[in-house]
Amino acid sequence: MASEQLTGAALLFKVLQQHQVKHVFGYPGGAIMPIYDALYDSDVEHFLCRHEQGAAFSAIGYARASEQVGVCFATSGPGATNLITGLADALADSIPVVAITGQVATAAMGSDAFQEIDVFGLSLACTKHSFQVTDVNDLEKVLHRAFAIALEGRQGPVLVDIPKDVQIALVDEKHGNYSQLKNKVKLPPANVGSALALMSKAKKPILYVGGGVGMAQAIDELRSFAKCTGIPSVSTLKGLGALDPQDANYMGMLGMHGTKASNLAVQACDLLIAVGARFDDRVTGKLNEFAPNAKVIHFDIDTAEIDKRRKADVAILGDLKVNLPSLEMPLSIEQWQETCQAMQRDFGWRYDHPGENIFAPAVLKELSDRVPENTCVTTDVGQHQMWTAQHMKFNDPTNFLTSGGMGTMGFGLPAAIGAQVSRPHDCIITVSGDGSIMMNVQELATIKRFQLPVKIVLIDNSKLGMVRQWQDLFFNGRLSETDLSDNPDFIMLAQAFDIKARQITKKHEVAEAIEEMLDHNGPYLLQVKIDAKDNVWPLVPPNTANDKMMENT
Amino acid sequence: MNHYQLNITADDKQVVLERILQVARYRGFLINGINAQVNNADNIGIIKLFVSSERSIGLLVDQINKLIDIKSVTVDNKATQSTSA
């Protein structure tokens, strides 16, 4: 049924409203000006970021913290290319984001016009799907499809490129039902019987939990399965929070910087139940020596993940909320549970550290013990990221946002902005490093503009720490381009954006400084100076089996 | 090196070929040939893709199947056997 005529740009906001989009992140420019003009009359609240990459990461943080679709805007050419890293990050971590880019007018497309780039071509490798709308009559359908695709099955980013003339063209709103996707991949029925048979026979099963559990909103089902079966459990980086960190059978993260107990247990297990996990190389170490004696049951929503890196003996495809309960069965594995719990006791974290210098793991444990309920922590990428994953406890995946698959430095600060916008009443903390924070430091201006009370814990070793660690360990100590001792004065930098800031250098300052930060009613930067030679332990060297980890001796 | 023929049907969208070629290359398959036609009656594209790789063809089938505009992907076993002999 035809109704009022409106511009393509106005139609965009109508569709956003229909998808309950209240907040978008973006940056205006020439080819997206009609959309920014329509924004003027819209109820959608726009958060001006100071770089399109910041807008993309804020949209990701928003999506991950709130389990809604994140939306970002950018203009054509450089605006669009600046989004690309964020889209790649969202694809790697399966985050539902809809990115809207302006494009030069259709008549100018393909002429190397000012600020023209084939963003549609660029998007092929870094989105779940992408559209270029060359007829305004297609716009409504495409936008609805974009939201449906972003959320359907394994979630991911979708880009919609809209030429300027399409934004200003008049069109009738059609009110069609466009959100229904055809379910083209017919999933085989879950082979529950075979899975139960493997579970019955197993003497040393392990539950290996990935980010797919949170994406499927199957936390309750997972915890119920873990409790009923009593299977000792481990988590990937992106799975942290899915399992109850207080559960006696939970051993923490596995993989390159996983706990010793997790890695030894996985290597010794005779049945590995992978739930929403994809056998990533940072998890498996040397693939053909990963869990060498284990049968595998693999739960996933994505057919393409089955047998991609590890052959599954039983694959259970589909919705975890449906499939996990069908395998609940008490198991008699008390001896194995005791073995795993003994390893946890024997190889637990130690926080004793010689001297007065601050020990980052102890800071993060202290922070974890003191934060309010429902605190959401984002990180950047590097040593501080791994220390956060190791030493902070999370009770839900929406409370730990980190760039897992892509490992994108510069993620943490803008992701925290997005999280804070989506959860204005929760405490949002970004743990960053002195290398990473400089990657999107301009977003301090976004914090200032919107007076967002984001807390920044800056673990500062004046180094590109993780690369320095690898250079020390694997490149004969030949330190190449990892010295950052000429960083700016971070206290002055924060203050330039009206952000309260404090530096600490000694252990005895930690507890009081964390309290001051958490008590502060506004944004705060806590610069924590640590020893430049501190390493992340344990470490499984590249292409090495996970039980051959290096430790701090 | 194993040689395979895939028979793909897809919505008739110009970019669908680009998507298929990008996925095939990225997932480690050498493209040896392609034959694409459109059935104008139902706007369905019919694509024969000839690829070779050391990797299992199932990996590529699953990845192409994930593309939004793809309707079906099958491996032509007859062609596969004759080219790998």
Tell me about this structure.
The complex is a heterodimer of chains A (553) and B (85). Chain A is of the alpha/beta class and 553 residues long. The mean pLDDT of chain A is 96. Chain A has 3 domains: 5-172, Thiamin diphosphate (ThDP)-binding fold, Pyr/PP domains (Rossmann fold); 192-346, TPP-binding domain (Rossmann fold, 3-Layer(aba) Sandwich); 360-529, Rossmann fold, CATH 3.40.50. Chain A has 21 helices and 20 strands. A 6-stranded parallel beta sheet of chain A has the order 3-2-4-5-7-6, with helices on both faces. In chain A, strands 11-10-9-12-13-14 form a 6-stranded parallel beta sheet, with helices on both faces. Helices cover 34% and strands 42% of the residues of chain B. By secondary structure, chain B is an alpha+beta fold. Chain B has a single domain (2-84), classed as ACT domain (Alpha-Beta Plaits, 2-Layer Sandwich), CATH 3.30.70.260. The longest helix of chain B is centred in the N-terminal third of the chain and has 11 residues, at 16-26.
What features would you highlight for this structure?
heterodimer; A: 553 residues; Rossmann fold; six-stranded parallel β-sheet; B: 85 residues; alpha+beta; Alpha-Beta Plaits; 3 helices; 4 strands; ACT-like_dom_sf (chain B); Acetolactate synthase isozyme 2 small subunit (chain B)
**Class per helix and strand makeup of chain A:** alpha/beta
Which pair of chains forms the biggest interface, and how many residues does each contribute? A-B, 15 and 17 residues
**The top level CATH class name of the largest domain in chain A:** Alpha Beta
Sheet with the most strands: spatial strand order of chain B: 2-3-1-4
Taken together, the total number of domains of chain A comes to 3
Percent helix among the residues of chain B?
25-40%
- Strands of the widest sheet of chain A, in order across it, are 3-2-4-5-7-6
Radius of gyration of chain B: 12 Å
| Span of the ends, CA to CA of chain A | 73 Å
So how many helices of chain B?
A: 3
Low-confidence stretches of chain A: none
User: How much strand of chain A?
Assistant: 15-25%
Q: What helical percentage do the residues of chain A reach?
A: 25-40%
Outline of chain B: globular
Radius of gyration from the alpha-carbon trace of chain A, in angstroms: 24 Å
Helix/strand order of chain B: EHEEHEH
DSSP, total strands of chain B? 4
N-to-C terminal Cα separation of chain B, in Å? 10 Å
Profile the largest sheet of chain B. Answer: 4 strands, antiparallel
State the major sheet of chain A.
6 strands, parallel
